[in-house]
Fold:
Amino acid sequence: MVYLTRIEHFNAAHKLYNPGWDKERNEIVFGKCANENWHGHNYELYVTIKGNVTEETGFLFDVKILSLLIKQFILDKLDHKNLNVDVEFMKGQMCSTENLAKAIWKQLQPRLPQQVELHCIKLYETPRIYVEYFGH
Amino acid sequence: MENKVSVYRREHFNAAHRLNNPAWDEAKNEKIFGKCNNPSYHGHNYEITVKVTGVPNADTGFVIDLKMLSDIINENVLERFDHKNLNLDVKEFAELNPTTENIVIVIYNILRPIIDKDLDIQVRLYETPRNFAEYPAG
Structure:
């Protein structure tokens, strides 16, 4: 069993704001992140897959294809977007790093070939904050 | 001999922005600014480095007290830029495109009058880990 990681990045705007609460409560709970006019981040995305190495290629999976899948199903949807407004798969959800990592897993996992198992979505919101999701 | 030394303080802020020239139509803005023109905004983790150059003070050994420099940057830049929308929340960008170039000039112009005029300053601003600008140039 080998683990293989591809690192990608995207930039996006978001805010943390629960529409079921009033402005005051949002500001108490989410502080500066509740700014109604949005703020933003450079997100760094680590996608780790696991499996056995194929003898003929020496590969677990062609990492170029993994990169293209991430680009097509994740980055094209998120990069230079407003996560709350522009992203179909985040609709109705709080755009926290936790939820975004889970949503990325849900988008990517069904698109990977059968022999490849998704192991971890690691998502940095800033160089100092990250989330890991292992699918359970 | 003057024995000038440069000291640096690094800070960071997160902000949303978009690049748009209101004098151009939508098509031209999209063509020039691409994804950065998204009307719903996007955002960055900005990293700012302020370089201060001068002769260390004979009594303290400091070019500038770096804690004081940090407080100056925090009060005058970060308080106004962090977790904000640069286009909507920061008055300097009401009519100025918030490119990395323009942001670094605005930050320099905010800091310059506050820091001792005998000290030279230069500001470096990273928009992403791969893109940055410096002002004054050189």
